[in-house]
Design a protein that fits this description.
Elements (H helix, E strand, L loop, with lengths): L24 H15 L5 E5 L2 H15 L5 E5 L6 H13 L7 H15 L5 H22 L4 H19 L7 H4 L3 E4 L21 E4 L11 H12 L4
Parallel strand pairs: 1-2, 2-3, 3-4
Amino acid sequence: MYAGMEPDYSIWETTVPEADGQVSAEAYVTRWSADVRNAGRRIRGVLGYCAGSVFAAELARRISEWQNEPPEVVLFDPEVPTGRTLYIQFHQALETMAGVLTPDEIAEVRAEGQSAHGGKDDLVAYGAALGKIFREAGHVAFQRIGLDADRGEELVGTFLSFLTWLAVTTQIDPTAIWARSVAVTSATSTNGLNTVPPEARDGIVARELRFDVEHRDLLRTAEVGRAVTELLARRGR
């Protein structure tokens, strides 16, 4: 991860708390920004990956409020999640149950997931609906393989936390911070700015660096790491 970056950079990674039904983007960012501020260190940059780029924008904005020099903001294939994003993650999670649930059962659960959206824009509600469907399907699958109920709930909880993390990005407007940020774009057509028509890209970010690597390899490509190191060096030592 972050291959090629200078070893003297300390990189902190945000963690997602368990979803408890009362989670918001505000709660996430307040927790993270408090940790950063309490550390008392100068923040040279904020890095965001995929949907995490939305949170990176808000975190960078808050750091700019107490730090004289705003941090460099680097976004790796930045995306704003949609209902389709949530459904794709739901679909992929169901694939892990394919050897336990029958094809007909999997198809039925997928159909439930699609119909739960109903064309609504409320991603938080949709994420909660997908979570409920996934929990019910997981309960059946875990019983069949004799998995301990607590362990099964732990696995479900991890996925629900991820869905919530994606859904609450709609509560943040990253536009202003993205407009002064640098985007690192992969060669994967289904990720990041590659999903935006060329004529609509103007102004989304201040600068775009493109690399001929797959989306999944962005953080482990040395060439990308060196480019990020150069960007952070602009903030001085």
